[in-house]
Each structure stands twice: as structure tokens, then as C-alpha cells.
């Protein structure tokens, strides 16, 4: 039995890959559809979210998207849905407003061209928007999507029949809150400090750094700073800074000074020393630091000069009576206290904080804010004009058609090999090994399979240890395959058209290599007589040379290529490694056994 340990290694890999692909948890059953979008006018808004699974409607099981569309067409009145195992009642007047797609049955993440996705149209709020403005926005959005880790997302500049420019986003699995809170958010960052001015008889002095400016409260409630008169609630520029006159209360005038803006941010920290998540009562607090410019730090120093401090009886620390308020697109995201020792000092490293009840939400919001601050503000504001579902560009029957074509191809390969060698026992293993390579590649690409491949790694280690103990042939390449491939299997990537092209390329080279093995070992050599092991070594010398050439050609595409080219290169390299380290040694052992018989 241990004489065929390479074959057992292949079987273990195929079993692990099959489990990685098909072993999926269905908490709400195998039937149902996945929610992709809930419209603003839907009665399910804020009740049903993207990614939820709908299994029943009015007590009837939903089996497919077509079945859902037929059951929801023309619905009015009370509608009962089973969503994520919970019953939801909706009152429908005009439209249900829920778009769905087929529920995933495999642990494979398919791309837009295979699974379909969402098309989002963003409309600029500014008038006279040029194509250069749109291209600048798209560049910033691409930066945000890359930093945030969004995959399978494409941006296009389109022009409507009204002559205005729009931004079209095509994405797979992008939630609406990602669009609203990340992609369509302008990202205008401002840090403001409350600046109080004490009055005596409606007259006071505002100190900014080393300069003092007279302030007078006028009878109509407006304030005069030197020769500048401002009304409550109005913003104005003074001494190189933006201010807002808030109000006058209890003998004090309050101004809100803008100390930092997005243009002042030079670095957003994400390392553990400057960012993290801290458990707090009833939730989690996130924080991360930013590095601002010297000009912004100087404005902070000028504004905080002469602001009085007070003692915090809980902490025993002294803080300025004013706080620093952090705004993003006009919305307050953080309110931070200022230590007394920072008053009047040049402060270049403020910290942004926030709070969420769930740890996952805190992590996501922290990453979202970091991404927006890193990418910078959009030159124009955007709003969501429309959202709809796009069908797979390759057709819903592409995978079944591809499987059928693969079966026909395998039959043709079988016939040609049988005609060449007149041995069914040679042709059948060749076809099996080719299919095994496909299964292993897809198993590596599958998601959520870390535990499966970890178990496979342990079994492989035991297998090769026993084979070594039993003094079987030493095969360093198969040993490497037994240990490396399960580790590679813990990664995952999207199966799209480039990935399929890479798999096809691997199948072609795999069949070629197996033919080389069969030809070298089965063909009769009259000139020189070689034993079986020597013939296999000669075959593998050719195979490894070809594999090394392929990998060397693909590596530059990974380092310098993007998009389609990179996906093709990664799939091809992994497929070649699976072939030379796992499937080829197994097939060589099968051929060797056949010759001995």
C-alpha cells in the first residue's frame, strides 16, 4: 500500500479540495435567494439588508430567482417573508423593491462575469461638471476601493442623454452602506476647536498666538472683530483661519475655529502602536492617529492659546474647557478633549476615535474612516442616482456549458491517448489526473476552508513520514507538494474569466506533461536501454524545465500586471505547482506500476 503513497497523496488532495468546494453550511436551508438591493421606497428598507437569505414568501418556498420574480409580480397588501429564518411582515402598496440573486451553493467566489452583481449610478451634485472632474473622482474612488479591500469593482465615466457626466460602478457583493458611506462620500475632513472670548461690558479680546484682537458685541447680536462684522451662525475668514460665529452666552462669545483640514493630513496611522479597538461598556471604541502638517499644527497652537483649563475629578487630569471636534462631510465623527499641556502647543498628531456596539462594526468603521482620509476628499459631491442588478456577462448557463465542454474534451483526450498507446489503463488515469488538477485548483480558490486544508496537511505529513519510515523511494518534489499545497490551499481568490483561462492553460500543459511521461516510459527505445526509474527521471527533467519556464514567464505579470493579467498569472502558477508537485508524481507512479505488470 505504501508503495503507492504518491497516489494516496493525490487522493487526499482531491478529497480536501472537494470538501473545500462543496462543504457549505446552509443555516436557512438549501432553497432561497440572496438579497442584493433594497430600494429607498421599499417597505423593507431598514428591515431587510443586502446579503440576507429569503426562503419563503407567503408560506411558499422560493427555489430560484425566476420563482421569486413570478411570486412577487403585482404583489399588494400584507406580505409575509421568511428572512434569515425569521418571519417578516411587510405592507406593500406599489412595489416590494427587493432585488435578489441566486443563493451560493458552493464555497467559490465568482466574479461579475459569472455571477452578476450590482450597477450603481452616482450623480455629481455640482453643475458644469467636466470629464476631467469625473476622471479625478474615479481615480480617488479606485484608491478607496483598493485600500478598503474591495474586489471585483469597476468604475466608468458615462454621459447621459442630458449631456451630464455620471459615474457608473459595477460591483459584485458591494453593500449599499459601502456606496453611501465610502464611495459616494465626499470625504471633506475638518477639525474645529471651540474658541471662547470673555466679555466685559460687551467688549473682549480674542488672542490668537501672540496677537490680540478686540471683539465687540453689537446691539443686534452680531460681533465685530477689529473692522469685521459677523452675524451669529455665519462663517468668516480671519487671521488666515476659518471661523464660525456660534452665539453669545453668559458674557462669552463662542467661535468655532477650523484648525485642520483634509489638505493638512500627511499620514494616517494603521499600525498597532497608533490604532486599535478597545472594549468599552456596551460596545467597542476604535481609535487611530493622523499626522498633520506644520501649518495646521500652528493654527491649533494659535487657537488654543489662553483657553482656560479645568480639573477632571474622575481622572485627576486637567483639560482645556474647549474640545476639538472632528467632522467628515459636515458630520461630527469624534469629540476629543484637549489636555492642558497641549494648549498653545504645536500639535501634529491628533487622534480620531469612535464607538460601535459590535466589534465587527467598529473595525469596519475604523477602516472606512482611514480609507477616506488616506484617499483624500472628492472634488465634487455625489449622490446615488440609481441601483439595479446586472446579469452575468457570460450567461447564466456558462458554468454548465463549460462543464459539458470539459467532458467532451476529456472524451477526445481519452480516445487519442488510447489510439496512441492501445492501453485503457494509461488513458483512464490521464483523464482522472487532469480532472484532479481542476478540482484541486478550485479547492484552493474556495473560501472558508482553512480547517480542511490544515487537516489535509497533518494527514499528508503522516503519510510521507510513514513512507519514509518504510524506506520507500525518496521524492523531494512530492514531499514538498504534500506540505506546500495545503498551505497554499488556505488562500482564496475570485473565479472569473481570467481564472478559467488559467485553468484551461494548466489542463493543456498537464496533459502534455502526462503524455511525455507515458511516451518516455512506454515507447520502445532501441538505441539506449533505460530502466523504468531512469525513464521517469528523463520525463521529469523535461517536465520541470517546462514548468519552470511557465512560472518564470508568469511572475513578471504578477508584479507589474493588473486586473485580468494578474488573475491569469496567479491561477496558472498555482496550477503548475499542483501539477509538478502532486499530480505528475502520482501519474508517474501509476505508469511505473503498469509497466511492472
Topology:
Blueprint: H1 5-22, E1 33-38, E2 53-57, E3 60-61, H2 65-72, E4 77-83, E5 86-92, E6 98-102, H3 112-115, E7 117-124, H4 131-148, E8 153-159, E9 165-171, H5 176-183, E10 189-200, E11 203-208, E12 211-217, E13 223-225, E14 228-230, E15 235-238, E16 241-249, E17 252-261, E18 265-268, E19 275-280, E20 283-292, H6 294-304, E21 309-311, E22 318-328, E23 331-339, E24 351-356, H7 359-375, E25 382-390, H8 398-421, H9 424-445, H10 450-469, H11 476-489, H12 497-522, H13 532-560, H14 564-596
Antiparallel strand pairs: 1-2, 1-6, 2-3, 2-4, 4-5, 7-9, 7-25, 8-9, 10-11, 10-17, 10-22, 11-12, 12-13, 13-14, 15-16, 16-17, 18-20, 19-20, 20-24, 21-22, 22-23
Helix pairs in contact: 1-9, 1-10, 1-11, 1-14, 4-7, 8-9, 9-11, 9-12, 9-14, 10-11, 11-14, 12-13, 12-14, 13-14
Description:
The chain has 597 residues and is of the alpha+beta class. It folds into 4 domains: 2-23 and 396-596, Multidrug efflux transporter AcrB transmembrane fold, CATH 1.20.1640; 33-102, Roll (Pdz3 Domain), CATH 2.30.42; 117-186 and 380-390, Alpha-Beta Plaits; 188-375, no CATH class. 42% of the residues lie in helices and 28% in strands. The chain is built from 14 helices and 25 strands. A hairpin with a 2-residue loop joins β15 (235-238) and β16. α9 runs antiparallel to α12, α11 runs antiparallel to α14 and α12 (497-522) packs antiparallel against α13. Mean pLDDT is 81; it is low at 525-530.
Keywords:
about 600 residues; alpha+beta; Multidrug efflux transporter AcrB transmembrane fold; Pdz3 Domain; Alpha-Beta Plaits; eleven-stranded antiparallel beta sheet; elongated
Amino acid at each position: 500500500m505504501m508503495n503507492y503513497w504518491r497516489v494516496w497523496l493525490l487522493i487526499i488532495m482531491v478529497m480536501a479540495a472537494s470538501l473545500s468546494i462543496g462543504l457549505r453550511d446552509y443555516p436557512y436551508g438549501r432553497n432561497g435567494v440572496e438579497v442584493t438591493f433594497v430600494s429607498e421606497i421599499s417597505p423593507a428598507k431598514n428591515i431587510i439588508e443586502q446579503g440576507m437569505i429569503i426562503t419563503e414568501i407567503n408560506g411558499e418556498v422560493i427555489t430560484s430567482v425566476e420563482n421569486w420574480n413570478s411570486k412577487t409580480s403585482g404583489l399588494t397588501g400584507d406580505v409575509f417573508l421568511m428572512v434569515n429564518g425569521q418571519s417578516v411582515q411587510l405592507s406593500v402598496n406599489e412595489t416590494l423593491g427587493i432585488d435578489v440573486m441566486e443563493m451560493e451553493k458552493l464555497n467559490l467566489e465568482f466574479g461579475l462575469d459569472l455571477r452578476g452583481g450590482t450597477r450603481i449610478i452616482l450623480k455629481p451634485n455640482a453643475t458644469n461638471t467636466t470629464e476631467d472632474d469625473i476622471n479625478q473622482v474615479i481615480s480617488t474612488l479606485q484608491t478607496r476601493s483598493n485600500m478598503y479591500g474591495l474586489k471585483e469593482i469597476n468604475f466608468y465615466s458615462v454621459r447621459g442623454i442630458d449631456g451630464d457626466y455620471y459615474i457608473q460602478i459595477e460591483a459584485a457583493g458591494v453593500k449599499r452602506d459601502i456606496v453611501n458611506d465610502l464611495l459616494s462620500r465626499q470625504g471633506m475632513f475638518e477639525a474645529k476647536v471651540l474658541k471662547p472670548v470673555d466679555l466685559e461690558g460687551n467688549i473682549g479680546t480674542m488672542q490668537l498666538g501672540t496677537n490680540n484682537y478686540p471683539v465687540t458685541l453689537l446691539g443686534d447680536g452680531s460681533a465685530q472683530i477689529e473692522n469685521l462684522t459677523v452675524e451669529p451662525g455665519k462663517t468668516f475668514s480671519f487671521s488666515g483661519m476659518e471661523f464660525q460665529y456660534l452665539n453669545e452666552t453668559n458674557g462669552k462669545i463662542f467661535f468655532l475655529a477650523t484648525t485642520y483640514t483634509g489638505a493638512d493630513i500627511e499620514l494616517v496611522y494603521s499600525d498597532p502602536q497608533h490604532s486599535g479597538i478597545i472594549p468599552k461598556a456596551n460596545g467597542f471604541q476604535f481609535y487611530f492617529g493622523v499626522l498633520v502638517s506644520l501649518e495646521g499644527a500652528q493654527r491649533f497652537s494659535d487657537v488654543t492659546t489662553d483657553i482656560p483649563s479645568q480639573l477632571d475629578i474622575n481622572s485627576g487630569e486637567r483639560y482645556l474647557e474647549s474640545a476639538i471636534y472632528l467632522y467628515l462631510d459636515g458630520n461630527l465623527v469624534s469629540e476629543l478633549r484637549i489636555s492642558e499641556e497641549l494648549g498653545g502647543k504645536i500639535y501634529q498628531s491628533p487622534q480620531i476615535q469612535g464607538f460601535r456596539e459590535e466589534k465587527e462594526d467598529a473595525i469596519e468603521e475604523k477602516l472606512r474612516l482611514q480609507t477616506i482620509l488616506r484617499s483624500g476628499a472628492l472634488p465634487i459631491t455625489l449622490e446615488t442616482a440609481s441601483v439595479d442588478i446586472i446579469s452575468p456577462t457570460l450567461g447564466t448557463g456558462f458554468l454548465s456549458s463549460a462543464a459539458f465542454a470539459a467532458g467532451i474534451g476529456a472524451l477526445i483526450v481519452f480516445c487519442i491517448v488510447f489510439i496512441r498507446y492501445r492501453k485503457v489503463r494509461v488513458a483512464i488515469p490521464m483523464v482522472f489526473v487532469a480532472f484532479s488538477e481542476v478540482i484541486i485548483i478550485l479547492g484552493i480558490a474556495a473560501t472558508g476552508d482553512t480547517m480542511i486544508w490544515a487537516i489535509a496537511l497533518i494527514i499528508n505529513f503522516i503519510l510521507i513520514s510513514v513512507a519514509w519510515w518504510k524506506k520507500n523511494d525518496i521524492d523531494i518534489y512530492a514531499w514538498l507538494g504534500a506540505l506546500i499545497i495545503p498551505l497554499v490551499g488556505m488562500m482564496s481568490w475570485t473565479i472569473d474569466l481570467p481564472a478559467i483561462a488559467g485553468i484551461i492553460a494548466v489542463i493543456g500543459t498537464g496533459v502534455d506533461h502526462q503524455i511525455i511521461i507515458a511516451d518516455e516510459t512506454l515507447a520502445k527505445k532501441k538505441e539506449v536501454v533505460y530502466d523504468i526509474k531512469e525513464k521517469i527521471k528523463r520525463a521529469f527533467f523535461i517536465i520541470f524545465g517546462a514548468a519552470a519556464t511557465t512560472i518564470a514567464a508568469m511572475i513578471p505579470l504578477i508584479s507589474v500586471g493588473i486586473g485580468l493579467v494578474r488573475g491569469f498569472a496567479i491561477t496558472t502558477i498555482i496550477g503548475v505547482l499542483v501539477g509538478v508537485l502532486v499530480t505528475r508524481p502520482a501519474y508517474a507512479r501509476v505508469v511505473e506500476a503498469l509497466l511492472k505488470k
